[in-house]
Amino acid sequence: MSHFYAELHNGVNKTLTRRGFANHGMDTFLKSWDGEIVVRVYCDLDGQNKFRIYQRPHSATGVGINEEIASGVIGKQVWNNFNQFPLMVENKHSYLNPENYK
Questions:
Q1: How confident is the model at residue 90, as a pLDDT?
Q2: Region 68-95: what's the mean pLDDT?
Q3: SS (H, E, C) 6-45
Q4: How many Cα neighbours within 13 Å face the side chain of 97?
Q5: Quick one: which of 69, 65, 43 has its CA closest to 56?
Q6: What pLDDT sits at residue 64?
Q7: I need a labelling partner for 64 at 20 to 30 A (CA). Which of 37, 47, 50, 53 fits?
């Protein structure tokens, strides 16, 4: 049985779905000519579902940088590395206003 589940929507074709398993995790590679964004979900040795989001150079052109954007436990609060305000996935604009976190 699947432990992870992914959906890909590109606005043109039907939604594409994929399954991932606890013993292998699941990786997603989103590319432009300027680099790649990688999203990895996995189950650690303690049984926690975790994630990593990072960017790296494009696999063919070599253009881009290596940088971790975020990592943590799925379902737990995530703090970004830039200004220590929580990243708000459900409302993409709320993390821009520090007044929301006083």
A1: 45
A2: 65
A3: EEECCCCCCCEEEEEECCCEEEEEEEECCEEEEEEEEECC
A4: 6
A5: 65
A6: 93
A7: 50
Cα(81)–Cα(57) distance, integer angstroms: 20
pLDDT given for residue 34 in this prediction: 94
Domain boundaries, the chain: 21-101
Supply 48's token pair: 């926690």
**For residues 38 and 29, what is the distance between their CA atoms, to the nearest angstrom?**
5
Mean of the pLDDT values across residues 66-72?
90
Burial of 41 (0-12, 13-18, 19+ CB in 10 A): buried
Q: Cα–Cα distance between 77 and 19 in angstroms, integer?
A: 25
Task: Choose between 17 and 88: higher pLDDT.
Answer: 17
Q: What is the DSSP letter of 79?
A: B
